[in-house]
Amino acid sequence: MAVESMTRERVETRLDDLVRENRFLIAVVFPAMGALLLVASAESLLPGPLNFNPYLILFGTLVMRLPLVAGVAPLTDRRALLAMGALTVYSYGIEYVGTTTGWPYGEFAYGIDLGPMLFGEIPLGLPVFFFPLVLNSYLLCLLLLGDRAKQWFVRLPVVIAAVIAVDLVLDPGAVGLGFWAYDAGGTYYQVPWSNYLGWVLSATVAVGLFDVAFDRTALIARVQRCEFMLDDLVSFVILWGSINAYFANWVPVAIAGLFFLGLVQIERFDFAVVRTVPLIGEKF
Q: Which letter does DSSP use for residue 109 in this model?
């Protein structure tokens, strides 16, 4: 057991170092290049195999998730794994129901494969896309709320509102790219409001399971001292803010700006990642 503990600590330390030493690459370069490649794919400017290459999309997403993975790794125990397993089952289940029945998000269909597709209907990598949207919102709200986050009746609605705000940025950009489309369109950049009612349900389930999975005191302590733990949210702002700007979706761009301000307030988007890049003439 002691050997396993030491091995795990070494792996976690190396992962921390990997992320810390490559913050600019992960949090700025990857989302900026991702936005460029996705827009180029939407305009069919890339060679055929590279247009919306599903494995390239999944790889880029996994890289941008590294700061969050490294951040929660020391807090992940058997209880957390069980809770995440339950959330995985829920995410696959609700997505399958959504694609086959239209409930609760509204009738929609994927326009491109986001990696290997399970049952030919839903992305196998769905948890990689879904979990961080909620967990980043959860962590941001814990820091912004401070002691008020201890009260579930404050924490829950605030995190749900943050998750809805995340999707108010994500969905218009994804629809613009052709990731998916709603059969009946919608008044909000071709997204129906029923989609957001569905997200209230999914966010409530996810927040409840995150509450079960992690010791909130330890989680807050970790995110306070781990400067890169919310870099995935930085990536989100850059990636989807840029994509929405390209499609002139100005409301989502403005909402992405609000996330920028929230990150600035907790000193997580103060361009610290830029300062990790050696200056010209500086020795590596």
A: E
Angle at 160 between CA 243 and CA 241, to 5 degrees: 10
CB contact at 8 A, 265 and 230: no
How big is the chain, counted in residues?
284
Measuring CA to CA, how many Å separate 201 from each of 96, 136, 158, 185? 15, 17, 14, 21
Please give the average pLDDT of every successive group of 10 residues along the chain, which has 284 residues. Answer: 74 96 95 98 94 94 97 96 97 95 94 88 93 96 93 96 98 98 96 96 97 95 94 96 98 96 80 46 39
Hey, where are the domains in the chain?
A: 2-276
pTM recorded for the entire structure: 0.92
The count of C-alpha atoms lying within 13 angstroms of the C-alpha of 68, restricted to the half-sphere facing its C-beta, is 26
Q: What is the spatial distance between Cα 258 and Cα 219, in angstroms, rounded to a whole number?
A: 24
Distance, CA of 236 to CA of 242 (rounded, Å): 10
Short-list 211, 115, 119, 131, CA closest to 163:
131
In 3D space, the residue among 213, 253, 215 whose CA is nearest the CA of residue 236 turns out to be 253
